[in-house]
Design brief:
Strand content: 25-35%
Distance between the termini: 56 Å
Number of helices: 6
Order of helices and strands: EHHEEEEEHEHEEEEEEHEEH
Radius of gyration: 20 Å
Length: about 300
């Protein structure tokens, strides 16, 4: 049985966090707290090379080593997980991914994933991604909700992959952040790369890959707990955690972001980020397609609370 080994260093903003809670956010895997606690008790997870307990309180720069057993066979089975299919034809489908579900299985990801749902709801999926990622052309972070394109055959998969690579897909997101900008329309264009110390995070760095994010302020609120803003976000490149990193670098981290925000939301909230619009030319027919959804319920609920708290 093969294993995956992950080494994390605790950032200053996570000092004092419980070990199991920190890992559930930092690893961004579909791991339950009970499973993490089992790994800790089995000494598969250590802090500074020593056996520890799930409720261990972390200190800045603690080194956590995680060894996740790799299942011998992933055995992906269809699961009747509710997903909204926005569009479907013989070549592609466009779905509305729920927040809190990983896109595809991998080492350490336990429980159903989006792929499990796709296998249940769609009859055909492309095979280019292998048995672990059928139909998956692009991905969203586990806690990001919203629109995704799914390929139903290999020809459409290759064509859609080329469109994403060549930036021929218009990608629009909605995000609620802490703080307010100086301008209602601005662009953040800063390179992004892996953090040199905190390897589970991305960061702005001069030797990173070019990344461009365009932001339009929709509305701001100031309540007792602080100032918050709703943005329409146009993603011109597709780097890992791009929107989260760029907004954090502007001093406006996304509400509910466990990796890039040191602030605690006034109400318990998941990550307030969603893919709300995708437009592109059909990979086979060339027909112009434009898909747009309303804000997910968890964003609407947060905004409603902001409105009622003014």
């Amino acid at each position: 049985m093969s294993t995956e080994k992950i080494v994390l260093v605790v950032p200053p903003e996570n000092e004092g966090n419980r070990l199991d809670l920190f890992l559930s956010a930092a690893l961004e895997l579909n791991l339950s707290r009970s499973y993490l606690q089992k790994l800790i008790k089995r000494s598969c997870i250590t802090v500074n090379g020593k056996k520890t307990k799930p409720n261990c309180r972390l200190k800045e720069n603690d080194t956590i080593e995680v060894v996740i057993p790799e299942p011998e066979s992933l055995g992906i089975e269809p699961h009747d997980i509710p997903i909204e299919i926005i569009y479907e034809d013989d070549d592609i489908a466009v779905i509305n991914k729920p927040a809190g579900i990983s896109v595809h299985p991998g080492a350490g990801i336990h429980g159903p994933t989006l792929v499990s749902a796709l296998l249940f709801h769609l009859d055909d999926l492309s095979t280019i991604g292998g048995i672990e990622r059928p139909g998956i052309v692009h991905r969203l972070d586990k806690d990001t909700a919203g629109l995704m394109v799914i390929a139903k055959n290999d020809i459409s998969h290759r064509a859609m992959s080329a469109k994403f690579h060549d930036r021929e897909v218009c990608k629009e997101y909605a995000a609620v952040t802490w703080g307010a900008p100086l301008s209602v329309h601005f662009t953040v264009e800063r390179p992004i790369g892996r953090h040199t110390v905190y390897r589970h995070k991305m960061t702005v760095r001069n030797d990173g890959r070019n990344a461009k994010t365009e932001l339009f302020l929709t509305k701001s609120w100031t309540i007792a707990e602080g100032t918050f803003s709703l943005f329409r976000v146009i993603l011109h490149t597709g780097r890992t955690h791009q929107i989260r990193v760029h907004l954090s670098s502007e001093g406006m981290p996304i509400v509910g972001d466990p990796l890039y925000s040191k602030k605690t939301p006034p109400w318990e909230s998941p990550l307030l980020l969603a893919s709300v619009r995708l437009s592109f030319l059909h990979p086979i027919t060339g027909k112009a397609l434009d898909f747009k959804i309303k804000l997910p319920e968890h964003l609407k609920q947060f905004i409603d609370k902001m409105e009622s708290s003014k």
